[in-house]
Structure formats: structure tokens, C-alpha cells
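Hi team,

Filling in the usual template for the complex we talked about on Friday. All components are listed, including any nucleic acid strands or ligand strings, so the model treats them as one assembly.

SUBMITTER: L.P.
PURPOSE: interface mapping
COMPONENTS: two
RESIDUES: 696
SEQUENCES:
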Amino acid sequence: MNTTHLHAFILAGGRGERFWPLSTYARPKQFTTLFGGTPLIAQAVARLQGLVPEANIAVITSADLVPATREALPNLPPENIVGEPIGRDTTAAVALACGLTRRRDPKGVAMILPADPLIGNVPAFRRVLADAADAVSREPAIATVGIAPTFPATGYGYIECGAPIDAPGTPLRRVRRFVEKPDLETAKRYLETGAFVWNAGIFLWRADVMEAAFRAHAPAWLPLIKRPDDAPALYPTLPKLSIDYAVMEKSDNLIVARGDFGWDDVGSLPALARQFPADAQGNVAIAPAYALDATGNIVAAEGTPRATALLGVSDLIVIHTAKATLVAAKSAAQNLKALVATLPPDLR
Amino acid sequence: MNTTHLHAFILAGGRGERFWPLSTYARPKQFTTLFGGTPLIAQAVARLQGLVPEANIAVITSADLVPATREALPNLPPENIVGEPIGRDTTAAVALACGLTRRRDPKGVAMILPADPLIGNVPAFRRVLADAADAVSREPAIATVGIAPTFPATGYGYIECGAPIDAPGTPLRRVRRFVEKPDLETAKRYLETGAFVWNAGIFLWRADVMEAAFRAHAPAWLPLIKRPDDAPALYPTLPKLSIDYAVMEKSDNLIVARGDFGWDDVGSLPALARQFPADAQGNVAIAPAYALDATGNIVAAEGTPRATALLGVSDLIVIHTAKATLVAAKSAAQNLKALVATLPPDLR
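RESULT (copied from the run log):
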């Protein structure tokens, strides 16, 4: 297909409390350079190269993060960094993206991508996006990219795949249903059937098709689609709702492109261990570290060259930034958000 | 007595590996400002005020630490900071102190004091030293100050007290014997008898009396006593031996002044908890710290204003300096020296 009709909207709305102190309120996860030296948001843009023209790549983020985002993405037109006045979850962001696409290119195909995930195999990622874009440019469907699960994750929603779509060589299937985060037993069952994929929050659609979906299932957002410039006034009137609830779970024209490209959202600090090598004692050092009688620990640092010495400790996460050090038990990482809530504002 | 005949020698020869990273090879424990904001060595000098004239206070330290020690003690005459060419334990240091005292004031009384310990009750400390100095100026004895034990410590040598010395109002006793670091059962027995005190490495003597003791028990050190200026040449010829072994355990003219003045050598990092208040969860924060589901931890920092956040961890020691962070299990602190040995030289 003609890629000049492809438009990408990278959603960077989260505050990443589960990633503190690598992620802070003023400098959320998409700015971390821990993975490969460049901010995640810059990597999210870079991996679209050759697929989506830079002029067609936009970022939807919090209004207060627009300056930092423009700074991190000097190659994008500044007006492509769009600020949301307040967070209203993904439904508002998708409606805004729909409105912006519709105004610029009514027959254009838009893709919605989260800013944070790491992608191990970028060519494979691009191929899946191209296949999905191709499909939604041919038929009035909404496509999602589903991640082939590698373990019975309880932290993601799942998509059950249905009948294959007759496009030889593509991984496209009809969507049977969206399901919410399962418990471990259910997740194991999903994994065994082979029919379920992780919902990674990646969606592709033609503007007119998405507008019709909103008209049918979520009409409250139509004013935002029609007048995206009025976002500052409209956002506060909108409910906070995910696009899965508002539109996807109610739609019957969904297709899913099954992807297997080393996707990892590194959704919590213990997940860092998936992205970096461990030593013989299971310690993962993403910063200078020395250990004696220490096993299964993760040490990371951003913006500081200080060394960390571990003595007789196990299964800890030690993270340094210029302002703070976190020392957490891996097993307590799910409570990180509660700890961050107790911190003074300048540390959060 | 006339205090102009009192001479103090503060021994600052250790490298404090059990206190890393607050203590490093280039900046050992005596320079830490964690306790009260001034270096321990400066506190050791300051607490002699009114007892020993500043002109009579000397520090015996490693030659490489002489400049830093002079900088930390601007009020002392620079020549009173004496460098040892190599470490030869306390026997060489006492012999050197004896030689320096003898040359300057043959009838003078010298006191040997370690640089590191904290003293909670300084007036009481001065009174004990004055009593002991008084005793050794009257009779040809060597005095030691014994610390009234507060728990069955296995990390110190003990002194068994004998008959009281007939000086009303003073805590002086004859010494029955010196005993080495006991096991826990023995230490408990010592504590029960009430007759044992900790050997804190504090000794007082007249120069002529100490010289006689060396002549009787440790003649190899006599050349150093007679020619203290030849220390650079003599030190390498001397064995490495503690004054307890070389002289004290063999002498029969020993008296002990029992002291109860809040002595604490803070001999290891877990001992920090004795010097600072704990919160309701038993966490001791000697630096900005925030905790959730964390108990019994110690957080300290020197030279950095960074915050530490603890999540779901117990009985850890977390120490920050400008160069390094230590995260250690309290129970592993006795292995700190082995960890430090594995560090690159610039971190030790």
C-alpha cells in the first residue's frame, strides 16, 4: 500500500509509577534511556522508519510533557506532539487521533501504538503492522496486533483469535472476543489452546471506519472526532475509559494480526531482568555492581556513575537516579505505586 | 596534677574496612562526619580540651594520611601529626609515643587513645583520664581505662579488675589479667561477675615507666624509643604486634580505671543503630529515607543529599557515599572486608 496514507499516533499518556525511580511524574518511563541509550519514545518513532513518513508520526501525551517530548523527538514536526489537557484514558486519545487523521486524510489509515514497549525484532514488527494496515485499507475493519504469548501472563488482556482471513502469507485472523486480565489458571488455559494472544494496545483503522464505530458504540466522543482543536474544552467533559471497553469489546468488525517480534512492555521493575543478561549468581547489573554472597538481584542506574556493592542479599531491586535510590524486594514490586504515593512531590 | 605535663597521642592507624563505604583506604573512619558533623579525629582532639594542652596533643597515623589529618586538625601544631611509614600495630605506635614524650618531657605522663570511639559523656571521660593520669604520676604503674560492659561483647578483649587502689573517690583497681576476645558463653560469665571491663586501648604512663616496661618485655622496640626521628628506618625492622601482647599481658604494675562514659567504638555498620534513633518499624535513617513494609533497616549517607526508598525489605544496611552504595544484609556485615577486597582500588 501507499505509505503516505499511513499515520501513526504514539500514545504516551502514562506516568509509569510501577517503574519509579527510573520513571517519575515529570519524566515518565518513555524518557528513560536505560534501554539502548535513547529514550523509549525516540525508539518508538525510530522503529516506524520506512513504514510511516515522519511527517505523519504524532505523539499524544500530557500537555505538560509536550516540551520534553518535542526535545526528545527533534526530527518530528513540533505540531505533531499533541498535548492532552487531562488524562482520559485511551478512548479520548483514539478519538483525538481519529479526528486528526480524518481532517488531514479522510481515507487515511491510522495506527495507535503505545510508547513504552520494547521490540526485539523490528523488521518483523514492521511487517505485521504493514499487513494489518493493508487489511484495514481493503475492508472496513479495525485491526489489532496481538502478541503471541510466551508465558501465562496475568497482567495483560487477551484476544481470542477466530477464523483466518484469506490473505496468503499474512498472520491475520478474525477476532472472536476481547477478554480482560485473567487469573493464573485461566491464563494457563489460554496459553495451552494456542488461540489467544496478548492485547498490546496496538490498533489500526481507517478514519471513517473508526468514526462509524464511535457513532455506534461511543457517541459521547464524536464531538472530539469532529473538532479535535476543541480538545482542551472537550476533554474534561469525557469519561475516563479504555478503548477496549468503549469500542473494541462491542465491535464485530475486528481482525487481529498475530505478532511474534520480541515484544516486552517491561511493565514493572522485576521485568528488567528479561532485558539484560544475568551473571552466574543470577544478578543483573545494568550499572557498575560488585557482589559477594548475593543472588538474583537487579542493579540499575540512570544519570550516575556510582558503584553498587551487594553483600549477602537476594532478590532485591536496587535502582539509582540522580535524586533517589530504591531498594525493594522483587516480591514487593507490585506495591511500588503505594510507596511512591508517600514520597514528597519532588521525588515522585 | 599539673596538666602541662600531660601528653596525648591519638592513634589513627586503622583503615576501617568494616565501615566501608563510610570509611575508605584514602579516607578512613576517623574522617567520617556522620557522627555529629565533624570528623571523628577532630572529636577525639576536642574532647581533651581542658585536660591536655593542644600543644601536647599528637596524632600518630599512616604517613599518607598526614596531610588530610593536618587539614582536619588546623588547631594542632602541624609537627604533632606524626606519620608511620608502615603499619606495625600498636606496639610500634606506643614506643614512638614513648620516645617523643621522653625527649620532650622525661617526667611527663602520656596517654594513648584510639581515634575512632564515640564518647557519650565527655566530662565523665575526662574525669576518668584525669584520675588515671594522677595515679601514674604518683606511682610507677601503667594505667588502662576499662569500659564497664553493657552487653556480652565477643569483639573486645577484657581486663579482669583486682583490688581497689586506696584513692577515695576514684575508680582505680589493680589489674588481675588481660584476656583476649572471649566466646559468647565466656563473655556472659564475665558480665555476670562484674569484675571484667572492656579493653578500649586507652593507656596512660610516665615515659620512664613505659621505657622500663619495654626494656623488660619488648627490647626490640627500645631503639625507636631512644631515636624516634629514625622511625622511617626502624619501622620496617619491627614486628607487627599489639601492645597488649608485647607489654601489657606481661606487666605486673598495671592499674585500671573503670569508666562508664557512653563509650562506643561503632566497630561495624550494624552498630550504627546504637547511635541513632529508630522509627516505630525499627528503621534507622541517618539520611532522607522513605519506607513501606520495611523493618529493621539502616540507611546512611555521606556527601549526598539523595533520598532512599525502601520497599518490602528487612534488616538491610544501605549506605551511600559520593562514589558507591552498599546494600548489605546486617547478618552478612562481618564479611564486608572480603567484599571490599574484591573492589577496584579507586572504590576501596
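MY TAKE: Residues 122-138 of chain A form the longest helix (17 residues). Residues 147 and 250 of chain A are 21 Å apart (CA to CA).

Thanks, L.
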